[in-house]
Write a structure and sequence with these properties.
Layout (H helix, E strand, L loop, with lengths): L6 H9 L6 H20 L3 E5 H5 L8 E7 L8 H9 L4 E5 L5 H10 L8
Length: 118
């Protein structure tokens, strides 16, 4: 597990705080990109949804991922992989195949590729 040694990371580790700052959004964005890339290496496709995708990530926000496809044997190992990369950031993982059809459009319309996060 790779640990960052940036000043912002050390402050978050020492205070347990995810203050509402551009630096915090940058850290969350970097970490979710790493998590999504690690999942992709295993054949898992995931998109970012929620406040981070909308550019509204702030103190108290979680990171939301929509898993659009994955090998069946990895389905519930995904949370552990994401947790390893997010270093304490709260997160939710939603599986596209478990979303009722009437809700799926809402998720897909607002989901973005982690590489496209601002």
């Amino acid at each position: 597990m790779k640990r960052s040694s940036s000043r912002e990371d050390r402050v978050m580790q020492e205070t347990g705080s995810h203050a509402q700052t551009p630096a915090t959004r940058e850290i969350a964005t970097r970490r979710v990109r790493e998590a999504v890339a690690a999942l992709a290496d295993l054949g898992v496709s995931a998109l970012v949804t929620g406040s981070l995708a909308r550019g509204e990530y702030e103190a108290g926000s979680d990171i939301d991922l929509l898993v659009t496809s994955c090998p069946p044997h990895l389905k519930y190992a995904i949370e552990g992989i994401v947790e390893d990369h997010l270093h304490g950031h709260r997160f939710d993982v939603v599986y596209q195949d478990e979303i009722p059809p009437w809700k799926l459009r809402h998720f897909r319309e607002r989901a973005v590729d982690a590489r496209d996060l601002a």
